[in-house]
Structures are given as structure tokens and as C-alpha cells.
């Protein structure tokens, strides 16, 4: 396999302070990095198709991919990036409270998302905007929670795409339980759980691995190793490459180039097929990079070197497929021009939809906490009602008119 190590080559500025830990720790990290294993890659960063015996096992899963399919994957990635950029801008304009950007992870998400079948079930984290796109969830529905006007914004069963989950790693347990149910039903659907490199340290993920292995659950664990868990680098999560963890649980793990949409599509199809065939769980580690901040509340310049991001920009997933499309004469200028217009239209639609979202009922936050009500929730509701009423009193008395209830 022609393999290009996507490990960052430059030392991390932050590692110095945190790994103040000293020489021994740095030496261990360096040793581990220099021994980075091979990853499945079907498109080089220059957009050249990789064909050799070693990746043939996976390549056969994309042997039927047509130029039209490739253009479709490109369109998915471009529109997802456009949507993501719009959401970041909307947060900066005060229209969203927070946004978790997927910048750089488009190939991992579109490749894996397009590998799923309609009847499969997806359990995302909070960053799977590209997977949501593949599942047919309207992008504007992803924004309500980040605006604070709802707790989710879509019907999970409408597209078999669970609500975003912020409690790190917990969705892997939900996915495992769901997959065990699918197996009991005798269905040949599969389940895919997304999580990050940081989440891999959570007990929930370890328990999911154990349960899914022992019960042979039809689940794919898709770990996007974007190198960082907020400010913690991956070397603070593990001493072995993440995909190798699967071995200890008794199921296969594979590292795929997470910036290569074709490889992600192929490897995820392979893993989903294993699940459908009753061969149990698979761990896919998509080796990628979070080019933006963790969220709009984060400032990555505080803990990582600019050179690291620059090294990964050269492996940009969208640019890589564009180079391949152009070199193969699969596109012409009109394709890119039309896509540009479509991107702008999407951006406009998203802006307008967010600004038009109605504020929720102020007391809705107290609903659906417990099925049968709870004394503490009742008390909190009453306190909040009294607080709101205090504004009304001021306004009624003519004092501070207009401030009530905001
Ligand atoms: C159980 C739990 N612990 C801590 C947090 C705070 N937190 C939010 S995101 C995050 C880092 C997650 O990193 P990773 O799993 O690598 O995903 P990424 O954000 O990089 O995609 C943490 C610690 C949380 N949401 N849930
Ligand atoms: Mg991460």
C-alpha cells in the first residue's frame, strides 16, 4: 500500500509546557509517532489513485464508483463545509450560542455517511454535520440546539440519525444497545457510532467495546481521530494507535486516511458489511485533523502550533478530490461554478432560517424532565416564574418599561 503518514511532523508548542513532563515523555511520544502504522489510503493528497495489493481488500468496495458518484462526494463535502462556515459566522454574529465546526473532517464524515444504508442507524456526537447531511437531515435543523431554542431539532427516527450527544462517549453505549436489539429482531441493518479520540478514553466506550464484542453486535465504531480533544493531544489519550485497541476486545480495527473520502467510503462499507453478515463490531479509526477550533468558545492558538495546521492543510480532503477530478477530466468549469452558486444559496437559506427561528416558550425547559413531575423541578419552575414576574411588576409600574421578560 502506498502510504503517506498523516502524522503531524512538527513538535507541538503546547506539548512542551504540558509535557513539561520532560525528556522521557517527549522521547516516548516521538518514538510512538515515528512508528505510526500504515493507514488505508486510496487517494493521495495530490489526488492520485492508489492501487496495490495491500489495499485491494478495501478498494473493491469502491470499484463501482462512477465519475458521477465522485462528483456527488465532492458536492457533499463542499456544501457541508459551506454550511459549517455559515454556522461559524452566525455564531460570531450572535445568532448561535456556540458552534462545533467540522472543518477538515469532511471526508471522514461524507465517506462514512454515504456508506450507510437507509435502514442503518447512526449515533453521532455533536460534530457530525456531514453525516447528518448524508442522512438527509435538513442542515437548518442542526442549528436550533446551538441557538438554544430546542433540545435537538429533528426526529431521530425520521432519518435514523440520533440526536446530537454532548456527553462524551455515551452514544457508543446507545449504539451498542440498539445494535443488540437489531440483532434480536433478526434484521440485517447495521449501526454506526461516531466518537472522537478524546472519547476513546471514556469508560462508556470501553464498555461498548466489551458488550458489542461479547454479544457480536452489528455495530461500527467510527472514531474520528482529529488529533485533539479540546486542548489535549491524542498522545495524552493512548500509548498505542487507537485502532489497535480493538484487538484487545476481540474484533478488528483499521486505520483509514480520514482525509481521503474514497478510502473512508470503502472501509466503512467493509465494516458495515461485516456487521450485516453477523461478524460483529469493527473499529474504524479515521486519521484526520480538526483544522478549526474545538468550538467557537475555544482558542487553539493557546495550545497548538500554526505549523501543525499548515501541514494538514496540505492534505485538505476537498482539495484532494478536486485534484483527482480535474486530473481525470471528470469535471468542467460549469460544475464548479454551479456548485459555487448552490453553496451560496445554501448559506443564504441557513442564515434566513436561523434568524426566523421562534424563541421557545420560557417555561418549556421544565417540561419532559421527569415523566410524572418532580418536587425539585416544581420548585425551580416556581422560582423562575417569580423571577419573570418581577420584570412584569417593574414594567407595570412604569419603571424600566420594555425590559420585562427578555
Ligand atoms: C462526559 C464528558 N466529559 C467532558 C466533557 C467536556 N468535553 C466536551 S468536548 C470534549 C473533548 C472531546 O474530544 P474528542 O472526543 O476528541 O472529540 P472532538 O471534539 O475532538 O471531535 C470534552 C472533554 C463532556 N462533554 N462530556
Ligand atoms: Mg478529537
Describe the protein.
This protein is of the alpha/beta class. The protein has two domains: 13-355, Thiamin diphosphate (ThDP)-binding fold, Pyr/PP domains (Rossmann fold, 3-Layer(aba) Sandwich), CATH 3.40.50; 369-396. It contains 16 helices and seven strands. It has a five-stranded parallel β-sheet, sandwiched between helices. The protein has a two-stranded antiparallel sheet with strand order 4-5. Strand 4 and strand 5 (232-233) form a beta hairpin. Helix 4 (67-92) crosses helix 6, helix 4 runs antiparallel to helix 14 and helix 9 (170-185) packs parallel to helix 10 (203-214). The termini are far apart. The relative contact order is 0.15. Residues 1-32 and 398-406 have low confidence and may be disordered. Bound molecules: thiamine diphosphate and magnesium ion. Magnesium ion binds next to strand 4.
Amino acid at each position: 500500500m502506498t502510504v503517506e503518514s498523516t502524522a503531524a511532523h512538527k513538535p507541538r508548542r503546547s506539548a512542551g509546557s504540558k509535557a513539561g513532563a520532560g525528556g522521557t515523555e517527549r522521547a516516548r511520544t516521538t518514538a510512538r509517532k515515528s512508528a505510526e502504522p500504515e493507514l488505508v489510503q486510496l487517494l493521495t493528497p495530490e489526488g492520485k489513485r492508489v492501487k496495490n495489493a495491500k489495499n485491494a481488500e478495501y478498494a473493491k468496495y469502491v470499484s463501482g464508483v462512477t465519475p458521477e458518484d465522485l462528483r456527488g462526494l465532492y458536492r457533499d463535502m463542499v456544501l457541508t463545509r459551506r454550511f459549517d462556515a455559515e454556522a461559524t459566522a452566525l455564531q460570531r454574529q450572535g445568532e448561535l450560542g456556540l458552534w462545533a465546526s467540522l472543518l477538515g473532517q469532511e471526508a471522514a464524515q461524507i465517506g462514512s455517511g454515504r456508506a450507510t444504508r437507509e435502514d442503518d442507524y447512526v449515533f453521532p456526537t455533536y460534530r457530525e454535520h456531514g453525516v447528518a447531511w448524508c442522512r438527509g437531515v435538513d442542515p437548518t435543523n442542526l442549528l436550533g440546539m446551538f441557538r438554544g431554542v430546542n433540545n435537538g431539532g429533528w426526529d431521530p427516527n425520521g432519518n435514523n440519525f440520533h440526536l446530537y450527544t454532548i456527553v462524551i462517549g455515551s452514544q457508543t453505549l446507545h449504539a451498542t444497545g440498539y445494535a443488540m436489539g437489531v440483532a434480536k429482531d433478526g434484521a440485517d441493518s447495521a449501526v454506526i457510532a461516531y466518537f472522537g479520540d478524546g472519547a476513546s478514553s471514556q469508560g462508556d466506550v470501553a464498555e461498548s467495546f466489551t458488550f458489542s464484542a461479547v454479544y457480536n453486535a452489528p455495530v461500527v465504531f467510527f472514531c474520528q481521530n482529529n488529533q485533539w480533544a479540546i486542548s489535549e493531544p491524542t498522545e495524552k489519550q493512548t500509548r498505542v494507535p487507537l485502532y489497535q485497541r480493538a484487538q484487545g476486545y476481540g474484533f478488528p480495527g483499521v486505520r483509514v486516511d480520514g482525509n481521503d473520502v474514497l478510502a473512508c467510503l470503502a472501509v466503512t462499507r467493509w465494516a458495515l458489511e461485516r456487521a450485516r453478515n453477523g461478524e460483529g463490531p469493527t473499529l474504524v479509526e479515521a486519521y484526520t485533523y480538526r483544522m478549526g477550533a474545538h468550538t467557537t468558545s475555544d482558542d487553539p492558538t493557546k495550545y497548538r502550533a500554526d505549523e501543525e495546521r499548515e501541514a494538514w492543510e496540505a492534505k485538505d480532503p476537498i482539495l484532494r478530490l478536486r485534484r483527482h477530478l480535474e486530473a481525470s477530466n471528470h469535471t468542467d468549469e460549469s460544475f464548479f461554478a454551479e456548485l459555487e452558486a448552490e453553496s451560496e444559496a445554501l448559506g443564504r437559506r441557513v442564515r434566513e432560517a436561523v434568524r426566523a427561528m421562534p424563541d421557545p416558550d420560557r417555561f418549556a425547559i421544565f417540561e419532559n424532565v421527569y415523566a410524572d413531575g418532580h418536587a425539585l423541578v416544581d420548585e425551580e419552575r416556581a422560582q423562575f416564574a417569580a423571577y419573570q414576574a418581577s420584570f412584569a411588576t417593574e414594567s407595570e409600574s412604569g419603571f424600566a418599561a420594555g425590559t420585562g421578560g427578555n
